[in-house]
Amino acid sequence: MKNQKILIAALLSLTLPAAIPSAEEVQSSMQKLLTPLRTLQPFLADEDKFTDDDNTDEIHEQLVALRRDFHSLERMPTHYKSQPGFQESVKNVAELLDDASRRFDEGRKEYAWWRLQRLPTDCFSCHATYKVSSQYSNTAMVDESLNPLERARFLMATRQFAEAKKTLTAALEDPSYRLYDDQILRSLLLIETRISKDPKESLAMFRAILKSDKLPLDDAHTVERWLKGLEAWSKAPPLREANKLASGERLIRSGATRGIDFAQDDVALLRGTALVHESLEAGNLSEAQRRKAIYLLGFAYSHLPHFFTEGWDELYLEKCIEEFPNSQEAKWAYDIYSDKVMDEFTGSGGSNLPAEVKLHLEDLRKKAYGEKEFAPKA
Predict the structure, then answer these.
(1) What is the pLDDT of residues 311-370, one digit of tens each?
(2) In angstroms, rounded to a whole number, what is the distance separating the alpha carbons of residues 153 and 38?
């Protein structure tokens, strides 16, 4: 799941080098994405509308505009491209749009609609992953036909986090969205740990949610675990800027620990990965520190698949192997990566790896363990 869309706009308050487009120029490029995305909202929310022949021309026009403006981001010279995962995320969303648009034009509208369902989530995942230093509110950009859950997804995708929190909290009160409570709760925790970063406020919010007695028992149990993590965060001393990577590593190590009678600490994992991302964004890590940071992200995201980070573990594990072959971190990364891939292709009938997946695994293994570059036999 390697994402992006309005990412750079979320980072506008960061200082850009003189050779990089100004914040105003970057913001202008991002704003171009909003109009086609807003127009597509009601079609993405309703498959019948999306597949209706009467709407074909309008949807085609908006997909063309969205693809064109998004591909312009690939060509924009920004220092964010040095961040692990940024270029891969932009590329993957661009490919998603290309594929969906092509299939739509071929008449495979159901498939195109299914592919585009990832778009709002991918945007939100990225905004909650990279350091977000600005948000805004423009509720006029939200289509009035959207239901609360669809509205919240669009608000999160476009960095309107304050409005998104209100909408998500209200959706928890509506029994018709009970099946989505786990998704809503995870969205709220991501906003709290990655955007708001106020543990006391987060504690108050989740305590109020738990007190309402409207959550299913399993979701209530999950929130109770989060409260413990938020409580620990609220009592933690302020972090020093120079210690972010070390602090992030400690949080990831403790958060990933499980036992017979206790589960992993999602709050610690989300806090830890945020600190590691911030360390990478600062751009002043040594090679050894960068190697550790990228591995830590792959390791941590392998424990957080349900927080809209599907695929992010593979992204960072591969990045670690490719950038630092024959290192200890690359070996650890390969072990996690290969286990994950084997699990994905193993069922009741045993393992059934496609040929191209086998070749890719072998290539990564040789890089991780310092062997000669793999070349398939003729």
Answers:
(1) 788 889 999 999 999 999 999 999 999 999 898 888 777 778 888 888 989 999 999 998
(2) 12
pTM for this structure? 0.77
Helix H, strand E, coil C: the string for the chain is CCCCCCCHHHHCCCCCCCCCCCHHHHHHHHHHHHHHHHHHHHHHHCHHHHHCHHHHHHHHHHHHHHHHHHHHHHHCCCHHHHCCCHHHHHHHHHHHHHHHHHHHHCCCHHHHHHHHCHHHHHHHHHHCCCCCCCCCCCHHHCCCCCCHHHHHHHHHHCCCHHHHHHHHHHHHCCHHHHHHHHHHHHHHHHHHHHHHCCHHHHHHHHHHHHHCCCCCHHHHHHHHHHHHHHHHHHHCCCCCHHHHHHHHHHHHHHHHCCECCECCCHHHHHHHHHHHHHHHHHCCCCHHHHHHHHHHHHHHHCCCCCCCCCCHHHHHHHHHHHHCCCCHHHHHHHHHHHHHHHHHCEECCEECCCHHHHHHHHHHHHHHCCCCCCCCCC
Sign of CA dihedral 64, 69, 73, 75: positive
**HSE-up of residue 48 (Cα within 13 Å, Cβ side):** 0
Rounded CA-CA distance 343/337 in Å is 10
Q: How many CA atoms lie within 13 A of 327 on its CB side?
A: 20
89/66 Cα distance (integer angstroms): 16
Structure tokens at 145: 């036909």
Q: CA-CA distance, 115 to 97, in Å (whole number)? A: 8
Our measurement of the distance from residue 167's CA atom to the centroid of its chain's CA atoms, rounded to an integer in Å, reads 20
**How confident is the model over 208-246, as pLDDT tens digits?**
999 988 899 999 999 999 999 999 999 999 888 778 999
Report pLDDT digits (tens) over 348-361: 777 788 888 889 89
Question: In Å, how far are 56, 83, 227 from 40, measured between CA atoms?
Answer: 12, 30, 37
